[in-house]
Design goal:
Distance between the termini: 21 Å
CATH superfamily: Molybdopterin biosynthesis MoaE subunit
Helix content: 25-40%
Number of helices: 4
Number of domains: 1
Number of strands: 8
CATH topology: Aldehyde Oxidoreductase, domain 3
Length: 146
């Protein structure tokens, strides 16, 4: 299991090379990469702040919960912080499980958690000014499935 909160970009191919391979218990690997997108047409960058140590512990706790709930063989969660331009990778999740349903569900669970509950504070830097990002009802609703 790997949890990393970092400012530096990550190499998706390097992170996933060999992930889930070599274990007779793994029948499915699911990966997801999040990218900073511009819904408004005005966004220049997204800035993420966090408390080092606290954020990693919170994410590790939810990774442990997912690993137990879906009997995961392995997990990778990488989440970036700092100022990220539109089009930059912001995070990735990889899950390895015996069956595809478990791998997909665990990945979705982790992504929903990261989107709405991981302790990051997000600020949008737009051409027209800056604003802190508020929680969205649809993100909270996504958590209710779990």
């Amino acid at each position: 299991m790997k949890v990393s909160v970092q400012s530096a970009p990550f190499d998706f191919a390097a992170e996933t090379e060999g992930f889930g391979v070599g274990s007779s218990d793994v029948g499915a690997v699911v990966t997801f990469t999040g990218v900073v997108r511009d819904d408004s047409g005005d966004l220049e960058a997204l800035e993420l702040e966090h408390y080092p140590g606290m954020t990693e512990r919170a994410i590790a706790k939810i990774v442990d919960e997912a690993a137990a709930r879906w009997a995961l063989a392995d997990v990778i969660v990488i989440h970036r912080h700092g100022r990220l331009a539109v089009g930059e990778t912001i995070m990735m999740v990889a899950t390895a499980a015996r069956h595809r349903v478990a791998a997909f569900e665990a990945a979705e669970f982790l992504m929903d958690y990261l989107k709405s509950r991981a302790p990051f504070w997000k600020k949008e830097h737009m051409r027209s000014g800056t604003a802190w990002v508020a929680a969205k009802d649809e993100d909270e609703d996504a958590l209710k499935r779990w």
